[in-house]
Structure formats: C-alpha cells, structure tokens
Design a protein that fits this description.
The chain is an alpha+beta fold. The protein contains 5 helices and 5 strands; from the N terminus they run E-H-H-E-E-E-H-E-H-H. A 5-stranded mixed sheet has the order 1-2-3-4-5. Helix 1 packs across helix 2 (41-50). The mean pLDDT is 95.
Length: 161
C-alpha cells in the first residue's frame, strides 16, 4: 500500500514566533553561520507582525510544519513595481527530495502573480551549487550583482561621517 503525503501551506501568525526563530537558526546552521544569528522573538514580533515588514509561510506535510519561507517587498525602479524578495527558505532535511522546496517556491510565485508584483527575487550563497543548479532548472536567471552589508561599527561609522 502506498501512502501519499499531503503538502499544504499556511501563513504564520504571531503564535509562530518561536517556530520562525527555530527555522531561521536551522537555516543559519546549514549555512555555517549560526553564530551570526542575533534575532530574538521580540525582534521578529516587532518587524513581522507589528510593523508588517515581512511575511512567513510554512509548508506542512500532513499538517506538520516541515519548512518555511520568509519574504518581504523591495522596489525596482526599472520596472516601477515591487518585488517579492525571498530572504529565507528552508525544508527540514528529512523532507527534502520530495519536491517540497519547488512547491514552496511555486506557492511564492503564485503570491507574486496574484498580488501583481513585478518580480520574484532571492540570493544564494556562491558555494551552494546544488541550490544554484536547482534554481536555474526552474528558469531563474543568475544576475551579476554582488550583495554588500553594512552592520555594527562600520554602519555607525558611515552614519557619523
């Protein structure tokens, strides 16, 4: 007998703050950057639920959360429209290889189309060739931009000058 699992999606609510932080840490651990996570549940509550600067959806197999995506809007002057920027996407390792990552990206693409946004964009670590190959197989185009960050003392120094 073959048992088929059902994949569904749900929007995060404020009661999910702990789970969101857990998934952020899982992704950071996968990327060997867990030591960089300084986010707190209070930070997430403020920016995702109070100020509504980001959204989170969960992927669920048979009603159990097995992955998440955190995204926000950016603006493109070239197309004079907003972009859905995918900040984080993570599927628990034991659920990979079932097409759930692709299904979650497809769900996000539907949001872009349904809401009339201009683009769906994300970044990927340069060493993560399996993910790069996967994104290219979906029809995504690799752009030639480099990402820069200013944080901490360097940010403060620039702001003071």
């Amino acid at each position: 007998m073959i048992v088929m699992s059902e994949l569904t999606f749900r929007n995060a609510s404020e009661k999910d703050i702990g789970l969101i932080l857990e998934y952020i840490k899982k992704l950071a651990d996968y990327e060997n950057r867990l030591d960089e996570v300084i986010a707190t549940e209070d930070d997430l509550k403020k920016w995702i639920f109070n100020k509504r600067h980001a959204e989170v959806i969960f992927a669920l197999e048979d009603g159990h959360e097995i992955g998440f995506a955190l995204f926000f809007l950016s603006f493109s002057t070239y197309i004079a429209n907003v972009n859905l920027h995918l900040e984080d996407l993570f599927i628990d390792p034991e659920y990979r290889g079932k097409g759930y990552g692709k299904a979650l990206l497809k769900q996000l693409a539907k949001i872009v189309v349904d809401r009339g946004y201009g683009r769906f964009e994300w970044t990927c670590l340069s060493w993560n060739q399996p993910s790069i190959d996967f994104y290219l197989s979906l029809g995504a185009k690799k752009k030639d931009w480099n990402v820069f960050h200013l944080t901490g003392d360097a940010l403060k120094k620039l702001a003071e000058d």
